[in-house]
Amino acid sequence: KLQFSLDILWNVKKSKINQLHEIIKKNKIDGMLLSKLSKTDLMNIFNFKMLCQACNIYDSFNEICKKYPMNMTDFDKDAIPKEYLCPLSKSIMNDPVIALNGITYDRSSIMNQYQSIPNYSSLFIDENLRLYPDYGLRQNIQNFLKNSK
Fold first, then answer.
1. Where does the U-box domain lie (predicted)?
2. Structural domain range at position 19
């Protein structure tokens, strides 16, 4: 009876893993992109209903990244256009957004580090951080990463 229960549990988990894998393939999410996603991004992409699900994926992936770091040496640093790098994180942007100061940042970086920007209060309207997606730059970055493989 216990073995039967374990087999059912394994098949449920295997099915869930296959679903997540299909979402990753459909959205063309690679390791670089996955490492830049926030917990909110994970909830939206994978249709998680509870934050703890996104936290588990986020924490697991961060543990993997600590054991097997992926750094900028995977790319020729001189070949990466400067406009693809976030001025806060110095990493290739996953979700470039334009702030009210006219500077483009990676969304997760500015949302977590806006207080490090001089005169950061100018980035807010009605106490809300105003960010505007830069779809063109995002597409250029995705093409660059795809062609760099």
1. 79-110
2. 1-67
